[in-house]
């Protein structure tokens, strides 16, 4: 592991937490002076409380500098995940932050579900499954909850709003890897 990798996690986690503190009326924090934070990047920010999901929002393609993506996705996870009410200031202390930085998307050429299952690398790949305007994304950590590839794809199709028992012609599969950084408990 390079020294850049060694220092990236703490910087990203501090940036995500500082963004939440700032959004809740705390002091404004300057962006750290790391050059890699200014490069385009995509990430997911996941919030948990007592090992239960409390919010998760992310970007799958780099559209802004990584530092800004982390700040905005942290706020999105805290205040705009439609599955949860907005995070309250009193909850922040018991909220654990995880930042997952995505590699570029790689299109996987498949025609059938069997081909998709054979192409997936359990425990390694995050997957974007899309058909028409419908799309679902699982980051690599979802393999911990869904270690069987057929179940993984079943739930990903469900998340995308696609038929769960039928592989639609024209279904698009993209994969990515990710570096995951978590706050200590």
Write the layout of secondary structure elements.
Layout: H1 3-23, E1 40-41, E2 43-49, E3 52-58, E4 64-65, H2 66-79, E5 96-102, E6 106-108, H3 113-119, E7 126-131, E8 134-138, H4 149-160, E9 172-176, E10 178-182
* Gross CATH architecture of the largest domain: 2-Layer Sandwich
Q: Could you report the average pLDDT, rounded to the nearest whole number?
A: 94
Secondary-structure-derived class: alpha+beta
Helicity level, as a percent range? Answer: 25-40%
Q: How many H/I helical runs? A: 4
Number of DSSP strands? Answer: 10
Q: What's the CATH class of the largest domain, please?
A: Alpha Beta
Largest sheet: 4 strands, antiparallel
CATH superfamily of the largest domain: Hypothetical protein ph0010, domain 1
Q: How large, in whole angstroms, is the Cα Rg?
A: 17 Å
Q: What is the helix/strand order?
A: HEEEEHEEHEEHEE
What would your notes on this structure say?
The chain is α+β, with helices and mostly antiparallel strands. It has two domains: 3-102, Hypothetical protein ph0010, domain 1 (Glycoprotein, Type 4 Pilin, 2-Layer Sandwich), CATH 3.30.700; 106-177, 2-Layer Sandwich (Dna Ligase, domain 1), CATH 3.30.1490. It has four helices and ten strands, in the order αββββαββαββαββ. The protein has helices spanning 3-23, 66-79, 113-119, 149-160, and strands spanning 40-41, 43-49, 52-58, 64-65, 96-102, 106-108, 126-131, 134-138, 172-176, 178-182. A four-stranded antiparallel β-sheet has the order 3-2-5-10. Strands 6-9-7-8 form a four-stranded antiparallel β-sheet, covered by helices on one side. The longest helix has 21 residues, at 3-23.
